[in-house]
Amino acid sequence: MLVKQRQGTSQDVPLGLGTAPWVAALEEIDRFPSSVHAIALCNAAELAGGMMTEVSIPSGARWIPKGMTVEYLAKAKTAIHAIADGSEIDWQTSGDKIVPVEIFDEAGVKVFTARITMNVKIG
């Protein structure tokens, strides 16, 4: 079994498929400890957009994200939820599809928007 020793301890952490080496959280890089990190918002947007794309394309089709344009509208200081809306997209044809994603905090305030370009291949 592959293992990596946790930094600063004598404890071994097993590594396997789908796992990553343990990395210590460093206070020096935690610039905004009372808000959701910007890259976490991007990850949430890509997850929501990707899941929506996966269930919207025809069976046997493939997709891959090509790019993402984002806007940070307000600090997200609570839990968030991301909504991807593909209702206006033609999923029956190949090509680039622009997937809009909005992220809201617990109070319903829109804190982030993204436009993710998904390249879809049919057949």
Write the topology of this structure.
Blueprint: E1 2-5, E2 12-15, H1 38-56, E3 62-72, E4 80-84, E5 95-105, E6 110-121
Antiparallel strand pairs: 1-2, 3-6, 4-5, 5-6
Tell me about this structure.
The chain has one helix and six strands; from the N terminus they run ββαββββ. With 123 residues, it is of the alpha+beta class. It has a single domain, classed as Roll (Thiol Ester Dehydrase, Chain A), CATH 3.10.129. The longest helix is centred in the middle third of the chain and has 19 residues, at 38-56. The protein is elongated and about 45 Å long.
Name the descriptors.
single chain, 123 residues, alpha+beta, Thiol Ester Dehydrase, Chain A, 4-stranded antiparallel β-sheet, two-stranded antiparallel sheet, elongated, disordered N terminus, HotDog_dom_sf
The CATH superfamily name is Hotdog Thioesterase
* Helical content class: 10-25%
- Count of DSSP-assigned helices: 1
The major β-sheet equals:
4 strands, antiparallel
> Domains counted in the coordinates: how many?
1
Main structural class: alpha+beta
Instruction: Name the strands of the widest sheet in spatial order.
Output: 3-6-5-4
Spatial shape: elongated
Radius of gyration: 18 Å
Tell me the name of the CATH class.
Alpha Beta
Taking pLDDT < 50 over at least 5 consecutive residues as the criterion, the unreliable ranges are 1-7, 12-29
Number of strands: 6
CATH topology-level fold name: Thiol Ester Dehydrase, Chain A
Report the sheet-strand fraction: 35-45%
Q: Mean of the pLDDT scores? A: 81
Question: What is the architecture at the second tier of CATH?
Answer: Roll
Q: Note the gap between the termini.
A: 40 Å
Following the backbone from N to C, one meets helices and strands in this order, namely EEHEEEE
